[in-house]
Amino acid sequence: MDPEGKLAVEERSGRKKIDDKSSSNAQGKMSEALLCSRLCTMHGSKDSKHWMFVSVVLNVIFALVLIFRKDTGFSTLSLENSFKVVPRKSVDLENKLICEDNESPDRQKVYKDNLSYGGANFGECYSYFADENCLNIASDRIINLDHGDPTMFAAYWHAVGGASTTVILGWQRMSYFANKQLFWFVEQELEREIRSLHKVVGNAVTEGRHIVIGTGSTQLFQAALYALAPPDRSKPASVVSASPFYSSYPLITDYLKSEIYRWAGDAMSFQPQSPNDAYIELVTSPNNPDGTTRHPVVNGTGPVVYDLAYYWPHYTPIIAAADHDLMLFTVSKSTGHAGTRIGWAIVKDVEVAKRMAKFVELNTIGVSQDAQIRATHILRTVVNAYAQKGSSPYALDRREGLDRNKLFHYGYSVMEYRWRQLQAAVSGGDRFSVPHFPPEFCSFFGEMITPHPAFAWLRCNKESDCHGVLKAEGILTRSGLHFGANSEYVRVSMLDQHSSFNIFLNRMKALSSVEVRTALVTQ
Predict the structure, then answer these.
(1) pTM score
(2) Before 286, cis peptide (omega within 30)?
(3) What's the pLDDT tens digit per position in 213-245?
(4) Same domain, 380 and 405
(5) Same domain, residue pair 137 and 204
(6) Three-state DSSP class for 266?
(7) Are 67 and 26 within 8 A, CB to CB?
(8) Residues linked to residue 239 through DSSP beta bridges, in sequence order
(9) CA count, 13 A, side-chain hemisphere, 115
(10) What beta strand segments (E) does 180-293 contain?
């Protein structure tokens, strides 16, 4: 067939698809219109009637899209500047590949994005699946628990469906400016949802405080150092944190080799040389990596940055609303949306908040509005689920199992299960040990609960290189050396997908039953 003949067949095929538009959704109609536009553009020089046909079809389709949105009950969320974001009421699973997670304690379904563009498929299974269809779990795969990627939450959000789905039209959110207020890049709806979330959970004071949004809490940590370090000193301010500290603190602090601050190590051994010796103390509570509750330890008057990324009821009892000068939070560990890259700082001093906002402005010219809008819907979904249940405490009803409507109940159930299983796995011998935490009263649940940290601070009791021992068995962890501790410890993420975590449990059971006869080797 000659090129003209092929084009004619392709054109007729495109027209046939458009004639069937009554059975397609709005997105399908727009795709067909684009296909027709492409075909007619290629062939328009041969037949000018095609242009008229395209014009008529596009206008009809545009009208149908508007009618479709109205008649199918799409809800709208009004934001600043009269823009609208359209959240879908149900998730379109046409482009999702559903996989049964047979190893899950609650037999949840997990999925992968099966995205395509220009004929190329970008979907891929999680690493523990043996085939491209996400059907067979590979028990011999390497399990990467080095990082804290919170993929365990995927099952919850898949069950929630489209309540948190956001659609942003191409002409929306094009300006640099999200509002006309002091912090011009902060979406006001997101700020309101952040305040509502903290009010529901009761884990932080927000009244009379300023909210600064950042690209994850990592950027806000850098912004806090920039805002708090005195700029006109002869030497940089010392940045310290008690060991074991978050492994990224030293790397982030010294990455730019700043002349206004520098990493100075373990806060337990730091002593200001004089009352004027500038320092900034970092307090992570619950702590990453060991899950303990932390308080400042330096005997001085320097500013303190509280990293409260894990101060949520699925990880630890909510004792009281945190009331500090500068507190950092993130959606990564609260809702599991690490890829959205949204964090927030709650700041008491407006001048400190302004300097932090200035850093964000200079660093990235604000924060993605698209990401902020998605975070708004995510947090609103969480808040609304609890608003339907009245006010706190939100009791744990263990007869219900995993509550698929309430995020923190779901997270608590999963974390409780995982910690119970891990503690049982290592109890088969004395080769490994993990922390045990005493129960405390949680105001959110209204009862005594045991902490279930996002990471297990695991110790090898008979071998000095714990990271090497686990790596040899296909388990990747992060050595205690990165946290200012020794190599007998490793940090293990408790946040991975269910199947991956259960493979880890089976391997730990096998390792724990092996008697180690070799003497302890010192490095």
Answers:
(1) 0.77
(2) yes
(3) 999 999 999 999 999 999 888 899 999 999 999
(4) no
(5) no
(6) strand
(7) no
(8) 263, 280
(9) 3
(10) 210-214, 237-241, 261-266, 279-284
**Residue found by looking up tokens 């962890």 in the block:** 477
Is 172 within a domain? no
- Give the model's pLDDT for residue 233: 84
Phi (first) and psi of residue 295, to 5 degrees: -140, 160
CA distance 413 to 425: 18
Name the residue with tokens 């046939």.
Answer: 16
Q: What residues contact residue 212 under an 8 Å CB cut-off, 6+ apart?
A: 183, 186, 220, 223, 344, 345, 347, 353, 356, 357, 360
State the Cα–Cα distance between residues 265 and 337, nearest whole angstrom: 31
Q: Is the peptide bond before 244 cis (omega within 30 degrees of 0)?
A: yes
Residue owning tokens 């269809």: 133
pLDDT tens readout for residues 465-508: 999 999 999 999 999 999 999 999 999 999 999 889 999 999 99
The residue range of the domain holding 209 is 188-386
Number of domains forming the structure of the chain: 4
Beta bridge partners of 475: 143
The residues with which 238 forms a beta bridge, in sequence order, are 262, 279
Residue spans of beta strands (DSSP E) within 374-504: 432-433, 440-442, 447-449, 455-460, 475-476, 478-479, 489-493
Q: How far is CA 81 from the centre of its chain?
A: 28
